[in-house]
Amino acid sequence: MMRLILINTQEWLRLKFFHVVLFLAFIYLAISSLLGSLSFVEQHRLILDFGLAGLEVTTFFVSAFLSTHALHRDIERKTIQILLARPIPRWHLLVGYLGSLIALNLIIATVLGGILFFFLEKMTMAPQLVVSVFFILLKSIVLCSFGLLTGALARPMFGLVLTISYWMIAYSIPDLKFFSEKLKNETLIFLSNGLDYLIPQFYRFNWKDFHFITADLQYSQLGWAFLHSISWIAILMILASLFFKRKEIV
Amino acid sequence: MNALTVKNLKKSFKTDFYKKPVEVLKNIHFQVAQGRFVGLIGPNGAGKTTTIKCLMEFIYPDQGEIQFFSDSSILEAKKKIGFLPERPYFQEFLTGVEFLNLHWTLSKSSGDFNQRALQVLDQVKLTHAKDKKLRDYSKGMLQRIGIAQALLAQPEFLILDEPMSGLDPDGRILIKDILKNLNNQKMTTLMSSHLLEDVEELCQDLVIVHKGEIKYCGSIEEFKTNFRTLEDAYRAFKLQFEADYNV
């Protein structure tokens, strides 16, 4: 499995798409630093809010695009046939994709988080920044697992649309609940409550802005968010493995 | 003893949600005896590649039985199989040796990798290019490194899907020489091909597939009795079964 992770990571790192996204992220971080320097009082706030949002968007793009296309790319190129001709179960390939996407997001988080920290020049914020970056990374892994699941079920573009929708809903459930309660529509209330159980509650650990960085997070909150993400990753990967096991590689 | 036994294999594909499934394999049954070089031939769309995909469990047959050696599971059987698909893509940023090393690890082989890699590279005449990146390989060289990865784990059974398609004459001659050597070593091989002269030169047995059905399964010598070449025999055979089935 480690070899699969390594070979996929090497491939992703060579992708032009990855280079372009990373380049755009650098520009975004530079702009956030410039905006920060224009402000006198809210310098750190601007850098953090913009920088961490940029980091999350970068990992989102990389996770959504690559996870939904990973399987289909190898099927089209017939690389998967040579790999599956080896005595390895199919789920190993999925773990290989997931592992390489984790590695890629880890590289992005380390590089962009490091630059952000360099711009901040504030050592006291380091632990909070690490926590925020870590949970952005966890969210990206949940998204990768979902992308791999949709990749095993549908065509890449449809999978991508599903994955983007999944990410958006995972953040918008409180708004959906709010509107359905305001509309007093029982069906909508039921649907939004149902979605809350069917989709990861990303909104509960959206700790990428200044307010959370400066406030002390409780260990129980961190533990819950960690377990929540890990559980979702496990559920999605088991489902992806089950579907991929029966997928026909035509 | 048979290296492979295929019984009553059937496979249909749904081309569209609202359309009836198309029956690609209707009733495939054949055997590959150990130590024999078998050619799987037939026109485009006959079901050669679909049969191979069923054998490798890339797709699942609707009905039928596939048995490799006496292994009960395909994972166990895959330890003894070397496979090369038609025109695959290899990770072009790897060198020849790195590519083989990847497949050595995946095949969970034991023993000395370096020694084995040099052996197979020598077998496919690529020792000089072992440290070259695959992106710098010619099409023929890529096909040969593909054969090398299939041979790497010392398989007992080789499955090759159109190993000579898209190659120039020099490339074809080289691949043919490699396959002839394997044949001399009594390597059990199933090779699908469009090229009758290659099949005639390399194979001892023949399986003819047409529209998802087996039309012939037996030795080439027997098939071409009364004919000078395999092509002549195939031409006459095709005319006969087309008349029989009003194709």
Explain this structure to me?
The complex is a heterodimer of chains A (250) and B (247). Chain A has helices at residues 2-13, 16-38, 43-77, 79-84, 90-120, 126-153, 156-183, 186-198, 210-214, 219-246. The two termini of chain A are 24 Å apart. The model of chain A has no long low-confidence stretch (mean pLDDT 87). In chain A, helix 3 (43-77) runs parallel beside helix 6 and helix 5 (90-120) packs antiparallel against helix 10 (219-246). The longest helix of chain A has 35 residues, at 43-77. Chain A contains 10 helices and no strands. Chain B has 247 residues and is of the alpha/beta class. Chain B has 9 helices and 9 strands. Chain B has helices at 48-55, 74-78, 96-106, 113-123, 139-152, 169-184, 196-202, 220-223, 230-245, and strands at 2-13, 22-33, 37-41, 63-68, 81-84, 157-161, 188-193, 205-210, 213-219. In chain B, the strands form 2 sheets. Chain B has a 6-stranded mixed β-sheet with strand order 5-6-7-3-8-9, with helices on both faces. In chain B, strands 2-1-4 form a 3-stranded antiparallel β-sheet, covered by helices on one side. In chain B, helix 3 runs parallel beside helix 5 (139-152), helix 4 (113-123) packs across helix 5 and helix 5 runs parallel beside helix 6 (169-184). The mean pLDDT of chain B is 87. Chain A binds chain B through residues 3-4, 7, 10-11, 14, 77-79, 81-89, 246, 248-250, and chain B through 13, 53, 56-60, 75-76, 78-79, 81-91, 93-94, 102-103, 105-108, 146, 149.
Keywords:
heterodimer, A: 250 residues, mainly alpha, 10 helices, 0% strand, B: 247 residues, alpha/beta, Rossmann fold, three-stranded antiparallel beta sheet
Q: What are the low-pLDDT stretches of chain B, counting only 5+ consecutive residues below 50? A: none
Largest sheet of chain B: 6 strands, mixed
Average of the residue pLDDT scores of chain B = 87
Strand content of chain B: 25-35%
Strand order of the largest sheet of chain B: 5-6-7-3-8-9
Radius of gyration based on Cα positions of chain A: 19 Å
Look at the helices and sheets of chain A and give the structural class. mainly alpha
Overall structural domain count of chain A: 1
Give the DSSP E fraction of chain A (strand runs of 2 or more residues).
Answer: under 5%
Distance between the termini of chain A: 24 Å
Tell me the name of the CATH homologous superfamily of chain B. P-loop containing nucleotide triphosphate hydrolases
Number of strands of chain A: 0
What is the percent of helical residues of chain A?
over 70%
Tally of helical runs of chain B: 9
- SSE series of chain A: HHHHHHHHHH
Count of alpha/pi helices of chain A: 10
What's the count of strands of chain B? 9
